[in-house]
Amino acid sequence: MVTKLKELVQAGTDEYRLAEQINPERIPVHIAVIMDGNGRWAKQRGLKREEGHKEGAVSARKITEYALRCGVKHLTLFAFSSENWKRPITEVNTLMNMLYQNLIEQKELLMENQIKFNIVGDVGRLPGKLRKQLNETIEVSREHSAMQLNLALNYGARLEIVTAVKRIVEDKIPARKIDEKLLEKYLFTAGMPDPDLLIRTSGEVRISNFLLYQIAYAELHFTSSMWPEFRLKQFLEAILDFQQRERRFGKV
To answer: Do the domain assignments include residue 184?
Structure first.
């Protein structure tokens, strides 16, 4: 059993049986998550979409804690895509306000558990007060080393690659010096290891413009569970699924 999960798991439960099967030596270093299904989860229960987003925020906190206890070093959560601006303005404003409030409320989690906070994406379009809170959270957690939590905000993989190319051109780097290592330095994820495992919830089986460059060799796990109901059982199932794969990276 993954040692630090013991206090979260009750003997005899499905979670306990799953935890016992997990090899602590093969925990993914970097897990990325497409948190999908908040709106549909709410609709199925006759609730407003806002309620789905609120419960989704609870899942995000819990999965952060589970990942930390399992020994994951990088957790990247897809919170708001560059395409999500197309949603109704009332929903966008609700999401921005929730992100702001959640940052304030979750600082304690970051501080107590030495979690480093980071943003992946183009924050320039985000509301000023949210940007300020993001920067403050990044700063106060800068020296933390237990795990890095990356929040993908106003993120799109195509936008990321185009932005990287523009910056390379602006820096006047000659073509002969451009290789994969150099390009990676210009991506939003510079300095991070590529994801080992990508999880998508809600039954959708697509990548949706998320970390397209970085997931070249990631293992993909799709679950029918909506994000607001994604908890320890589903998280352990995803890790166990990952551990049952044979990763060859192009080798025989």
So the answer is: no
